[in-house]
Amino acid sequence: MSENKINLVVPKDYNGKPIEVVLREGKAPVALDPKEPVRIAINGTIDALYRWIEKRVELIDQKKANIIVNRDRMAMSLSINETDYYQTKISGVLQESKEMVEFGINTDKKWEPIKLSQFFKMHRAFFKDKSENMMLVSTLKNFKAKVNQDIERSKEENGSKVDNYSQVVDSNLPKSFKLNIPLFKGFDCEEIEVEIYADVDGRDVSLSLVSAGANEAIEEYKNKVIDEQLKHIRLIAPDIVIIEI
């Protein structure tokens, strides 16, 4: 067994007492490889930017941050340390509610009468009037439509042609009904009036849901909500540049 002698000078503390020194045998633990910084990218609802800034405003260099606003896409994005490769980016979008998407209001979504009847029955909670819901469920289940078609075709000797076609659909569907649903994700319910449009092609019938009121409210909300968020941000972080595109 070999002996290793170590000459050690033990320093003393302010009171003249030797400082305790601990000698450990064996191999030192392997140091972990240094890791690169991580990019922070968060996607949330339209108020995500304000909520992030509110809690970290004292840590932000506002002169190195920017907010990009795109009203057409109903979106905003915040970049912190804008020239840094590992910059922080927070994005917020004013998203259409899942209820609006599921109903397919003002979209190309087509419903078979029986499928729409079942859907209305399972989503009765969103109807302003429960008795109206029951009536719609029953009507759609027993959907009837009378189609009157007029076809006029003629050809004159001089080559002139007449080819007219008209179709009038008379159904037992009500003109409209009212829903109480959120227009946007994270927002309160709004009352909207919805119409049912029927498309009849022979024996095939497809229905679509249309609401002019919902479309108008969405346009008004889009600008109102974004303006409110920017107002809140300016109050707590006035030096962050805001750019509209």
Description of the molecule:
By secondary structure, the chain is α+β, with helices and mostly antiparallel strands. 25% of the residues lie in helices and 31% in strands. It has two domains: 40-95 and 223-244; 98-152 and 166-217, no CATH class. It has five helices and ten strands; from the N terminus they run βαβββαααβββββαβ. The strands form three sheets. The chain has a five-stranded mixed sheet, with helices on one face.
General shape: elongated
Relative strand content: 25-35%
Helix/strand class: alpha+beta
Q: State the helical fraction.
A: 25-40%
- Kindly provide the radius of gyration, computed on alpha-carbon positions and rounded to a whole number of angstroms: 34 Å
Uncertain residue ranges: 147-155, 162-168
Query: How are the strands ordered across the major sheet?
Result: 1-4-3-2-10
Question: How many domains make up the coordinates?
Answer: 2
